[in-house]
Amino acid sequence: MAQSKSVYFKGWVFPALLLTPQLLITWIFFIWPAAQAMYQSTQMQDAFGITTVFVGWKNFINLFTDPLYYQSMITTLEFSFAVSLLALAVALYLACQADKVIRGKYWYQTLLIWPYAIAPVVAGVMWLFLLKPHVGILGHFLNSIGIDWNPHTNGSDAMWMVVIAATWKQISYNFLFFLAGLQSIPRSLIEAAAIDGAGPTRRFWNIIFPLLSPTSFFLLVMNLVYAFFDTFGLIDAMTQGGPGNSTDTLVYKVFADGYIGLNIGSSAAQSVILMLLVAGLTVLQFKYVEKKVAY
């Protein structure tokens, strides 16, 4: 029987060369932009970026005394949890149903994964046309059954429109992981529970769902990060933060204040706060929520 041989590198040059591409990517696209944002958050500059003045914590103080910033934070939390819970629930249901299909199951699975390949802006424009009050098919249907639907003037309707689009965009990602988790569960456990008289509902909550807890926990974290960061394209294409700042999330406010309002210092301070908020949320979940996850 052949023995496995360990490979040792003589010196540090070759291992360093192997790590260099990844380190460069991390530095260029992550560390350097984060350092730039932290630096710019302590500066105040004119609209043309010609002159800058060091102001210390003033940009942060102005943010935490601005009612619109608190409103944007509440909007972000409501939007993020709504998208995460809906996307996880719908994806889990679809994965359970697709896992039962025997004939043509690969076609169903492929069709359910396809929406993830659509660009966020394209998905936003598509749902915007579908939910337009009098032109869109769904918008016209809602008004025809007596629902006063108008996301252009009603902030609540606009929020639901963005939530629906963001949820639809994320379902495919969750479906893929849930389906893989379901297929990894031994069938013997489910069959033994069925023989013992456990119904479908009891088998799901007592056997399937606990075994999916690692996948569910991972997807919960990824969905919250998605809702915080990756929904900018949807919001920009559908509502631009309106009407009346009802869909102005933290990530869109960073863009609106920095690119449109040309307040680079405030925009950089908001990006730093958003980065710390998401990092803290992730640490909190891994530290406390993960203890209840059965691996």
Brief characterization of the structure:
This protein is an all-alpha fold and 295 residues long. The protein has helices at 13-40, 58-64, 67-100, 105-113, 120-130, 137-144, 155-183, 187-195, 200-211, 213-229, 232-238, 250-260, 264-289; strands spanning 43-45, 52-54.
Main sheet characteristics: 2 strands, antiparallel
Name the helix and strand elements from N-terminus to C-terminus, one letter apiece.
HEEHHHHHHHHHHHH
C-alpha Rg (nearest Å)? 24 Å
Helix content: over 70%
Task: Indicate the structural class.
Answer: mainly alpha
Q: How many β-strand runs? A: 2
Strand content: under 5%
Low-confidence stretches: none
Structure description:
By secondary structure, the protein is an all-alpha fold. 71% of the residues lie in helices and 2% in strands. It is built from 13 helices and 2 strands. The protein has helices at residues 13-40, 58-64, 67-100, 105-113, 120-130, 137-144, 155-183, 187-195, 200-211, 213-229, 232-238, 250-260, 264-289; strands at 43-45, 52-54. A two-stranded antiparallel ribbon has the order 1-2. Helix 5 (120-130) packs across helix 7. The longest helix is centred in the first third of the chain and has 34 residues, at 67-100. The two termini are 35 Å apart. 25% of the residues are buried. The mean pLDDT is 85. The complex is composed of two ATP-binding proteins (UgpC), two transmembrane proteins (UgpA and UgpE) and a solute-binding protein (UgpB). Belongs to the binding-protein-dependent transport system permease family. UgpAE subfamily.
